[in-house]
Write a structure and sequence with these properties.
It is a single chain. With about 850 residues, this protein is of the alpha+beta class. β7 and β8 form a beta hairpin. α1 crosses α24. The structure holds one RNA strand of 90 nucleotides.
Length: about 850
RNA sequence: GCCGGGAUGGCGAAAUUGGCAGACGCAGCGGACUUAAAAUCCGCAGGGCCCAAAAGGCCUGUGGGGGUUCGAUUCCCCCUCCCGGCACCA
C-alpha cells in the first residue's frame, strides 16, 4: 500500500494518549503544603539596596467569604507583585482586615455570637481562602483593625486631631439610618438612602457629633488631584465633583426694619455678582436662622414656612429635590440691595437649601432659570442687566431671550459698572463690595466636615471624657488604648450599646479626679481604613503607629488596586489623613498612592452578582472544580481588568483546558536529562525551530509591554495561548528532531516564567518538571531579543484604491521599490488595476501597499 | 442639565502610533482516535451573493448620519442608546 499523503500537522498527532491529564487538585495541594511551610516566602525585606515596590489591594471587610470581585482584585495585584519580584524589586505585598463594622453586630443579634468571635472566625475562613488561591501576601504584616494594637492608634490620631483643632464637637443635623440605628457621613448617603440599606430612607436628626475638619484641606485635596496622573480620570473627576469648589461673592443685604436675634442682614452667596443690578428679590431657605425672626409675629406665615420645610425634607428623603415644584411666600419685609440702593422683597422659597452657600440667594430672574420661573409665577420684577456681545460690530445687540444665562456678555443698567465685560465686572464688583464693607470674594465647597460619631458598638471608642467640672476632656495618651469592652448585650435600639455598660461609662476625670463619663459613640470605620497602609510598613510597632523612616522608604504606594466604589469615600478620607500626617511631621509624602487602578465589577448574566438574583459564583466552588490557577487566570482573561467582567462557567472550562494543554506539552517535552538540554541555543536553526523561537520572543515582548503599560492582562494570556498553540503546531517538527533540545529547553523555561505571575501553582510544578531548583518566585523575568522576535518574511497587504486585493510575501529586509514592484506584479493586483492608470503608490513600511488608480 | 466611560460575530473579546477588522477563548460544525462515549488531537467558521460542488471570486460589515484621508473600529462634527458620578449648588 502506497504511503498516504497527509496534510501537514494533521493525522500524525491524532489520538495522543490521555494519561497526561492535568490533575490541578493534586498539584495545587502539593504546592500549597510547601508554601505553608515557608512563611518567609513573600516577606518584604526591611531595608534593601534593591528598588522598592509597594503593591496594595484594598483590604476586605471580613464578611465571611471571598466573592469573585475579591478574587479578581487580588489576582491583578498578585500578578503584579510576582512580576515585580521577578524583576528584582523589593516588593511589599501585604493584606489585612477592615474588621470593625455593623454586620458583626447584626450577626451578633441574629445568632448570639459575640462580634469579635464572629469577625475572627470570618477572618480565619477568608485567610484560608486567600492562601488556597495562592496569593503571595506577607502575612507577618497582617493588620486587623478591630485589635486594640491597631485601634489604639486611631485613638492616638484622634487626640492629635483634637489638639490641632481638627476634631471638634458640634450639634448638627445629621443623616440617620433607622436600620443601622446610627449616624451616617454625607459620603454614606446614596440617593437619600443608606449605603448599606439601599431601600432605607435616611432621616435627618439633630445630634451632638464629633467632626473631623476635612474642609481645612478642601483646596489642597482639589489641587493635588492634578498631581495624580497615575489615577483614573474618572476617580479624579468624581472627587472634583464631590469637593465642589465654587468661586463667588458674599454680599450683605440690610434688613429694612425691626431686627431680631438672628441679626440685621442677609448674606447671600452668588457666583454672578455681575448680575446684582438685576437682583429684584432675596430668597431665604425655609430653615434659614432669620426666618424665625421674620415669622415671629406672624403665625400664618410661620405655618406656611413649616409647610415648605416639610416639603423640602420629604423631597430630600425621596432623593428628588431637583424635581420639587418651586414656590414660596413673601415675608412682607424688604432688604437693601447695596449696589442699587433699592429695597427688594424678602421671600422664603422651597428651592433654597440651607446646607449650600449661606442658605440665602439674591434672585436675578433675567439671568437664572430658576429665578426666572419663580419671578414669572409671582410677578416679580425682571430686570435685564447683561446682554450678549455680538460677533458683528455693525449689528445692534438684540434683546436676548430670557432668561439669558450665557456667560459672554456686557453689563447694562448697572450704574457705574455698565459697559464692563462680565468677568471683569465680577472682579471689580466684588472688590467694590469689599471696599465698602458689605461683601467680599469667597470660595465655597460642597465638601462638608467628616462626621465620624457612630452610635454603634463594634468600632473604635472615641477617647474623650465628659466631666461636670472640666467639660470635654481628652483621654491622656498614656491611658490609651480605651479598650472596647466585650461580652455586652447588643441591640439596635436605644442609642449606643456602650452607654449601657456602666463600668465603661463611669470613669474619673484626669484633670480634677472627679467623676466623668466616657464618650459612648465609636468611630466611623472609614477612620480605620484611612491610614492602614502605613501600618503595614511597621505593623508590630507598639510605641507609635509606625516608624517614620520605614514609612518613608515604602511610601508612596506604587500601585493601589481596588473597586471604583471607593472612589469618593475611602480615597478622599485617606488622602486627607495623609495630608494631616504630613503636617504633623510623621511622613513626607503628600499623597498616599502614586498610581491607582480601579477594576471593573464581576457580573453574571448581565447583572451584578447577588443572592437575590441567584447568580453568585462562589470562589470555593470554582477552586474545587477547576483549581485556583484556573479561577485566577480566567478572572484576568475574560475582560480587560478595568472593565466589567461577565462571568461564564464555560469560559473557565476553556482556561482549564488551556492549563492542561500546557501541562501535557511539557510532560512530553521536558527532558532535562537529555544531552543538549543545557547547551546554548545554536544560531543556525531550521525554519520550524526559528518559528518557535520567534514566537517565543514576540510573546515575551507582548506580555512585558502589557505589564509596563496598559495592563491588559487578557491579551497577555491570549499571547501565551498563542505561543502554546504554536508549540503544538511544532510537534511534528519536534518528533522529527528539527528543533534542538536546547531551544526546547529555552522555550519551555521561558513559557513557565511568563505563566508564573498568572498561574503560580502550575508554573511551580512545571518549573520542577524542567529540572529547575531555584525559587521561581524570584527567577529573573525573561528578556526578549528584538532580533529574534523579528519576522524574516513579511506579508504585505496590497490595496487598490483602499480595497484589499492581495497579499504579497517579501523578505523582511526588502526595500520600498522592490516591495512596490512585487505588489504591482502580483496577478490579482494586475487584474484589479487593468485598464486604469496608477496615479499614486503609497507604501507604509512593513505595513501595506496602496495603489491609487484612475 | 453637567461631567466621565461604553456600544465590534451567536457570546466574552482583540486590533498598542490612521494601515489585512474579528487575534485568543467560549458555544457551534466537520474530521481523527474509540465497540461507544468522555477526554484528547486536527480542521472550518462575520453576513450576503456568484459557481453543480470544491477551489476561487465579488459585494458588504465595527450603534446611526455626515466629514477629513490614498486609506477610519481608530481623528473631527451631529445624533441614538447603555453604565457610572454630580445636581434647584445660587
Amino acid at each position: 500500500m502506497p504511503q498516504q499523503e497527509q496534510p501537514e500537522g494533521s493525522a500524525t498527532v491524532a489520538g495522543r494518549p490521555n494519561d497526561e491529564r492535568y490533575d490541578a487538585q493534586r498539584v495545587e495541594s502539593k504546592w500549597f503544603e510547601r508554601w505553608q511551610n515557608d512563611p518567609s516566602l513573600y516577606a518584604a525585606e526591611p531595608t534593601s539596596t534593591q528598588k522598592k515596590y509597594y503593591v496594595l489591594e484594598m483590604l476586605p471587610y471580613p464578611s465571611g467569604a471571598l466573592h469573585m470581585g475579591h478574587v479578581r482584585n487580588y489576582s491583578i495585584g498578585d500578578a503584579l507583585a510576582r512580576y515585580m519580584w521577578m524583576n528584582g524589586y523589593n516588593v511589599l505585598h501585604p493584606m489585612g482586615w477592615d474588621s470593625f463594622g455593623l454586620p458583626a453586630e447584626n450577626a451578633a443579634i441574629a445568632n448570639h455570637t459575640p462580634p469579635r468571635q464572629w469577625t475572627l472566625s470570618n477572618i480565619a475562613n477568608m485567610k484560608a481562602q486567600m492562601k488556597r488561591l495562592g496569593f503571595a501576601y506577607d502575612w507577618s504584616r497582617e493588620v486587623t483593625t478591630c485589635f486594640p494594637e491597631y485601634y489604639r492608634w486611631n485613638q492616638w490620631f484622634f487626640l492629635k486631631l483634637y489638639e490641632q483643632g481638627l476634631a471638634y464637637r458640634k450639634n448638627s443635623k445629621v443623616n440617620w439610618c433607622p436600620k443601622c440605628a446610627t449616624v451616617l457621613a454625607n459620603e454614606q448617603v446614596v440617593n437619600g438612602c443608606c449605603w448599606r440599606h439601599e431601600d432605607t430612607i435616611v432621616e435627618q436628626r439633630e445630634l451632638e457629633q464629633w467632626f473631623l475638619r476635612i474642609t481645612k484641606y478642601a483646596d489642597e485635596l482639589l489641587r493635588d488631584l492634578d498631581k495624580l496622573g497615575g489615577w483614573p480620570e474618572k476617580v479624579r473627576v468624581m472627587q472634583r465633583n464631590w469637593i465642589g469648589r465654587s468661586e463667588g461673592t458674599l454680599v450683605d443685604f440690610k434688613l429694612d426694619g425691626p431686627v431680631g436675634p438672628a441679626g440685621s442682614k442677609i448674606t447671600v452667596f452668588t457666583t454672578r455678582v455681575d448680575t446684582i443690578y438685576g437682583a429684584t428679590s432675596v430668597q431665604l431657605a425655609p430653615e434659614h436662622p432669620l426666618v424665625s425672626d421674620l415669622t415671629a409675629s406672624n403665625p400664618d406665615l410661620r405655618a406656611k414656612v413649616e409647610q415648605l420645610i416639610s416639603e423640602q425634607r420629604k423631597a430630600k428623603e425621596r432623593g428628588d429635590i431637583g424635581e420639587i415644584e418651586k414656590h414660596g411666600v413673601f415675608t412682607g419685609r424688604y432688604a437693601l440691595n447695596p449696589f442699587t440702593g433699592k429695597n427688594v422683597p424678602i421671600w422664603i422659597a422651597n428651592y433654597i437649601l440651607m446646607d449650600y452657600g449661606t442658605g440665602a440667594i439674591m434672585s436675578v430672574p433675567a439671568h437664572d432659570e430658576r429665578d426666572y420661573e419663580f419671578a414669572k409665577k409671582y410677578n416679580l420684577e425682571i430686570r435685564l442687566v447683561v446682554i450678549p456681545i455680538s460677533n458683528d460690530p455693525e449689528e445692534t445687540v438684540a434683546e436676548p431671550a430670557l432668561p439669558y444665562v450665557g456667560h459672554e456678555g456686557v453689563l447694562i443698567n448697572s450704574g457705574p459698572f455698565s459697559g464692563l465685560e462680565y468677568s471683569d465686572a465680577i472682579i471689580k464688583m466684588s472688590a467694590h463690595a469689599e471696599n465698602n464693607g458689605f461683601g467680599k470674594p469667597t470660595v465655597t465647597y460642597r465638601l462638608k466636615d467628616w462626621g465620624i460619631s457612630r452610635q454603634r458598638y463594634w468600632g473604635t471608642p472615641i477617647p474623650m471624657l465628659y466631666c461636670e467640672k472640666d467639660g470635654i476632656v481628652p483621654v491622656p495618651e498614656r491611658d490609651l488604648p480605651v479598650i472596647l469592652p466585650e461580652d455586652i448585650e447588643i441591640t439596635l435600639a436605644g442609642g449606643s450599646p456602650l452607654g449601657r455598660v456602666t463600668e465603661f461609662v463611669h470613669t474619673t476625670c484626669p484633670k480634677c479626679c472627679g467623676p466623668a463619663r466616657r464618650e459612648t459613640d465609636t468611630m466611623d470605620t472609614f477612620v480605620d481604613s484611612s491610614w492602614y497602609f502605613y501600618r503595614y510598613t511597621d505593623a508590630r510597632n507598639d510605641h507609635a503607629p509606625f516608624d517614620s523612616r520605614i514609612a518613608q522608604y515604602w511610601f508612596p504606594i506604587d500601585q493601589y488596586i481596588g473597586g471604583v466604589e471607593h472612589a469618593i469615600l475611602h480615597l478622599i478620607y485617606s488622602r486627607f489623613w495623609t495630608k494631616f500626617m504630613r503636617d504633623m511631621g510623621l511622613i513626607t509624602n503628600d499623597e498616599p498612592a502614586e498610581r491607582l487602578f480601579t477594576q471593573g465589577m464581576v457580573i453574571k448574566d448581565g447583572a451584578k452578582m447577588s443572592k437575590s438574583l441567584g447568580n453568585v459564583v462562589s470562589p470555593d466552588e470554582m477552586v474545587a472544580r477547576y483549581g485556583a490557577d484556573a479561577a485566577r487566570l480566567y478572572s484576568l482573561f475574560a475582560a480587560p481588568p478595568d472593565r466589567d467582567l461577565d462571568w461564564q462557567d464555560s469560559g473557565i472550562e476553556g482556561i482549564q483546558r488551556f492549563l492542561g494543554r500546557v501541562y501535557r506539552f511539557m510532560v512530553r517535552n521536558a527532558k532535562p536529562n537529555d544531552a543538549g538540554w543545557n547547551a546554548p541555543v545554536p544560531a543556525n536553526l531550521s525554519p520550524a525551530a526559528r518559528a518557535v523561537q520567534r514566537k517565543l520572543h514576540q510573546t515575551i515582548r507582548r506580555v512585558t509591554d502589557d505589564f509596563q503599560g496598559r495592563w491588559h492582562f487578557n491579551t497577555c494570556v491570549s499571547a501565551i495561548m498563542e505561543l502554546v498553540n504554536s508549540l503544538y503546531s511544532a510537534e511534528d517538527a519536534i518528533s522529527q528532531n528539527q528543533i534542538p533540545q536546547s531551544l526546547l529547553a529555552d522555550v519551555q523555561r521561558k513559557l513557565v516564567l511568563l505563566l508564573a505571575p498568572f498561574a503560580p501553582y502550575l508554573a511551580h510544578e512545571l518549573w520542577e518538571m524542567l529540572g529547575e531548583s531555584g525559587n521561581l518566585l524570584k527567577a529573573p523575568w525573561p528578556k526578549y531579543d528584538p532580533e529574534l522576535a523579528k519576522e524574516e518574511e513579511l506579508e504585505i497587504p496590497v490595496q487598490v484604491n483602499g480595497k484589499l486585493r492581495s497579499i504579497v510575501v517579501v523578505p523582511a529586509d526588502a526595500g520600498e521599490s522592490a516591495i512596490v514592484e512585487t505588489a504591482i506584479a502580483d496577478e490579482k493586483v494586475t487584474t484589479a488595476v487593468a485598464g486604469k492608470q496608477i496615479v499614486k503608490k503609497i507604501y507604509v513600511p512593513g505595513k501595506l501597499v496602496n495603489l491609487v488608480v484612475k
